[in-house]
Specification:
Number of strands: 0
Mean pLDDT: 82
Largest sheet: none
Structural class: mainly alpha
Shape: rod-shaped
């Protein structure tokens, strides 16, 4: 009788557990469907976000490339201007050298003429010396003017070169900033994948 009672209790317990198992299975199946729907929705949202970020990245890269091309064009133009200015400076220096040579020849010639005139006209020595002094002062004034113009031209050239270097540094800073933006967007995409 005790064994029969134990068997009945065991049967009741098994039946109860089977019913509980059946209910849990039904509950799990219902939750599984909900989770699958939520997972599908999350995946679709993730895909849409990734697509949006990739579109923004493509747009940013395109804008970055366009800006780099524009900066390269501007830099080429500035380099062309700089080369032109250097050519102008070389031309001015050549002109100054030519003028100095001409002045040297002219002074030498005048000094020789003065010497001959001194020999021929000893009585006019003072007058000739005054003329020679005046000629030398005129030459010195002309040379000083030309040297001042050359210094001014060189100073302007150096200032322009410094300005171009500052612009290049600014452009490099902008490029580095764009690279940082691209790296940040790529990191966001990796974190979403």
């Amino acid at each position: 009788s005790q064994i029969k009672s134990l068997q009945d209790e065991h049967t009741v317990a098994i039946t109860k557990r089977e019913k509980e198992g059946s209910r849990m299975h039904e509950l799990f199946a219902s939750q599984k469907d909900e989770l699958n729907m939520e997972l599908s929705s999350t995946r679709e949202l993730h895909a849409a976000e990734v697509e949006t970020i990739e579109a923004e990245l493509r747009s940013s890269k395109k804008a970055h490339l366009e800006e780099v091309e524009a900066l390269k064009d501007k830099l080429d133009t500035l380099q062309g201007d700089l080369n032109s200015r250097e050519g102008t400076i070389d031309s001015l220096q050549s002109q100054i050298k030519s003028l100095q040579d001409e002045h040297t020849v002219a002074i030498t010639k005048r000094e020789k003429e003065g010497s001959r005139m001194h020999e021929l006209f000893a009585s006019q020595k003072d007058e000739l010396n005054m003329e020679l002094s005046s000629t030398r002062e005129l030459h010195a004034a002309e040379v000083e003017t030309i040297e001042a113009e050359l210094r001014s031209s060189k100073k302007a050239h150096l200032e322009e070169v410094e300005a171009l270097k500052d612009k290049l540094d600014t452009l490099q800073g902008d490029l580095n900033s764009r690279e940082g933006t691209i790296d940040s967007l790529q990191s966001q995409i990796k974190s979403l994948q």
